[in-house]
Amino acid sequence: MAIHDVQSRYQSLALNALFRYFSQKASIAVALLGCAVIVGWIKDITILKSILPGWVAMKANTAICLILGGISLLLWHWQPRIGIKRNIAQACALLVLLIGLLTLIQYAFNLDLGIDQIFFHTSIDPLGDAAPGRMAVHTAFIFVLFGLSLLLLNLAAPKYLLAQLCAIVAFFIAGMGLLGYLYGNALLYRFGSLTSIAVHTAVAFLLLAYGILFACPNRGLMVVVTSKNVGGMVARFLLPTAIVFPPLMCWLVLSGYRMQIYTAEFGLCALSILNILVFVILIWWNARSLNVIDRQRQRSQTALKKANEKLEQRVFSRTKELLRTLGRLKEEIAERESVEQALFQEKELALVTLQSIGDGVITTDATGSIKYLNPVAEFLTGWSLTEALGLPLTQVFRISNEITHQAAENPVAKVLHSGAIVGLANHTVLITRDGAELSIEDCAAPIRTSEGQIIGVVLVFRDVTQNRNLARLLSWQASHDVLTGLVNRREFENRLIQAVTSAQSTKEQHALCYLDLDQFKIVNDTCGHVAGDELLCQVASLFQTYLRSYDTLARLGGDEFGIILNDCSLEAALLIANQLREAAQKFRFVWKQEKIFNLTVSIGLVAINADTDNTNTALSAADAACYVAKNQGSNRIHVYQANDLDLVKQRGEMQWVGRITQALEDNRFRLYYQSIVPVSQTYSLTEHYEVLLRLIDETGEVVSPMAFIPAAERYNLMQTIDRWVIHTFFANLARYGNSQWYDSRSLKHSHGSLYTINLSGASINDDQFIDFVCEQFLLYKIPPSAICFEITETVAIKNLGKAAGFIRSLKEFGCYFALDDFGSGMSSFAYLKNLPVDYLKIDGSFVKHIVEEPINLAMVDAINKIGQVMGLQTIAEFVENKAVLEVIQSLGVNYAQGYGIARPRPFRFK
User: pTM of the predicted model, to two decimals?
Assistant: First the structure.
C-alpha cells in the first residue's frame, strides 16, 4: 500500500479541501496585488505603489514576480499533472527564480544587467533603493526561494518537503519585514542602508508562503497539521496562536510604551504576564482535550475486551462442532477404504497399463469428478492422484485460451452432454497447480457399460509447449527485427496497408514518419559494428518511450526507422515527431566509458488520409521528405506536401541518377574547352585551356552541367564522371594530339598546351583516385606537365589536410594545380600556405561586377596581390566584356577567362 494511502486514513478530507481552497484564493490575491501595483506604475498612483506617501514603493519587477508566482501556484491547482499547463507553471516559476538570482548577482558583484528598468524608468528612491527600480536584497532572495519552491511543486515527481521548507524560510524573512513596519523598526525591513522591502510586498510574500504550504496539505510538513490524530489537533490549535499572539502582544506593549502610558519595565512585566497567561490557558485546554480523548480510548478498550470474550466463546463452541464433524468424516473414510480394497485387484491391471502411456490420462465418473490420474497427468497438472481424487475436473484440469485467456469449455462436460468423442480447440493451454501454463492437445471419449450407458469419461492429453513456442518464435522472427526487437519492414508495410485502408474506408487520419539517424556512420566507423548495434538498440528504446501503445515503431534497415501514428492528425504527429527529434538531440551515446557521441535524427512526415493512393506512395513520400530534411542540414522535420518545391527538386535529382547512369552507358557525355589567355605583361608560350563537360540528353539537346552535377554530387556519381573525363580526354589527347580541333588554328603543338581538368570533392577523398590518375598518365603517355587539375575552394577547406596531401602527391608526379572559385566560400589567405597550388582562380561573382562595385574591385585586387606575393598565377573568371578586361589588366591579374575572351567550344575528335 502506498504511503499516501496510509496517510490519507488519518487526515480530514474537509480540512484538506479548505486548505487547498485558501491556497487557490491566496494565489489569486497575490497575482491581483501584483497587477494592482503594475497599474499603479502605469497610472502613477501612489497608493497602489507604496500604500502611503513616504512609504517604500513596491518595484515593478517585484510586482511582475508576484504575478508570475501567483499564476504558477494557481496553474498547479488547475493542471492535470501533464500538458501545457504544467509547462506554463514551470516557466513562470523559472522566471521568478531567474529574476531573483540576477538581482542578487547585481548586488553581489556591483553590476547592472539592465533588468531593473525594463518596463519602467525611475530614479533612486532614497527610502530603500540601491539602484533605480531594483528590488531589495531580501526581496530578491525570497523570490529565489519561491521560484525554487514552485519549480519543486511543478516537477513530474514533486518534492513537497523541499518546496515547503523553502516557503517557510521565505515566510520568516517576509514576516520579519512586516514586523519591522508593525514595530516601526527599519532594521527589520531594510537590508543594509539602502534596500528596503515594501509593506505590501511583505504581505504578498506571507500570502504566497501560506498558499504554497496549503497547496498540498496531505504532503510533507503539512501532514502533521492536517492529521485527524491528537497531534494534528494540537498543532491546529497551537500554531495560529503561536504565530499571531507574540507579535500582537509585543505590538500592544510597544504602543503603550511609545504613548508613554507606562514605562519600559512595566511593559516587559505586562508582556511576560500575558505570555504566561496565554500559554497556561493553551496548556490547560490541550490537557483537557487529551483527557477527553483518553477517556474515550479507555471506553473503547473495555468494549473491545468484552467483544473478545464473546468471540472466544463462539470459537470454543464451533471447535466442538468441527471435532464432531471430523469424527463423522473419519468414519466415512474408513467405509470408503473397505470398498476400495475390494476393487484394488481390478484396478491394478488398469493402472499398470495407464502408467505405461506417454500421454497424460485422466478418468472421471459420470458427474465429472476425477477417478484417476496417471503419472504423466500428475506431472503436467501438478496434482497427485491422492490430492485430485474425487475433485471436479475443472479444479485440477484448468484450461483456457492462450490468446484471450478466457476459460475453455470443459471437454468432459461436452462428452457427457453429446456422448461423442471431442477434442480441444487450437491455442488451448493447461494452467498447472503452481500457475504455470502448458500448451496441450487432448481428446476426450465416453466410458460406456455393456448396455451403452455412460459411466465416465477418459481424457488423454499431451504437452506441445515446445512445438508451439518454436512456431511462435518463427512467427515472431518473420515479423520483427532480431537486433532491436522492433517490427521489421515486412510487418511494418502490412500494418501500413491496414492504416491506408482504414483511412480510405472510414476517413480516419493517420501519420507516417520516416526517421534517419544522422551520425550513425561515425559510431560504426569509430567504434565498430558492435557499438553501432548497441546504439540502435538504445535509440529504439528511446523512441518507444515517446510513442503511444497503439503506435507502430519499426526498424526499416540500417539506421532507418519508421513510425505509424494511428488515429493521429498531422498537427499532433508533428508534435510527437518534434519530441523524438529533441530526445535524439539530447541523447548521448557512451561507448565503454571512453567515447561519447552526439546524435541527431532527420524525420520525414506524411499524412495518411482518404487521398493517400497506396502504401508505396506513402512510404516513398515519407522517404523523400526525410531525404529533404537531411539535405537541409539534418536534425529537422520535413512535412510532405504535394507542391513542395524541395521535394520536387529532390525527386528531380533522383531522376537524374538514372539519366546520368544511362548517359555513361550510352557515351552521351561530351567534352568542351574554353581558352584561358594571358592579359598582363607576363610572357608565356603555353596555351591554356579548361576542359568542360556537357551531356547530350535523350532528345539530342545539350544539357548544362549545372543541371546534373548537383544530383551527381549528392548521389555519389562524381567519382565515376571524373574518371570518365580523365580517361576520355587522355585517350583522345594521346591519339590525336592537338589536331582534333579542325576549327581551332591556335592549337598545333600538344606539348605547348596546358589543360585544366576539374575534380570533385568525392575524388579528392577517394584513396584509390591518385593511383587511377597515375595509371592513366602511364597508359596514354601523357606528360604530367600538360595537365593542371582544378579543385574549388569549398572542397579544399572541407578537408584541408586531405586536399593538401592529394595536391602534393600529383605535383610530385609533375602536374599543376589550380584553386577555383577563390573568395566564394570561407576565404582565408592563411590556408593558402598549406595548399601548394600554382594558379589561383578568382571567383567570377566578384569579377563580373568589378566595374560598378568598388567592394568587388577591392576584393579582386587583394586576392591578386596576395597570390602574386605567394608566387601564384592569378586567373579572373567571368570576364564578359572589354570594360572588365581593362580593369583586371590594370590590377595586374595574369590570366582571363570568360565569354568576353572565348566561349566554350566542343572538342571535335575525328
Answer: 0.41
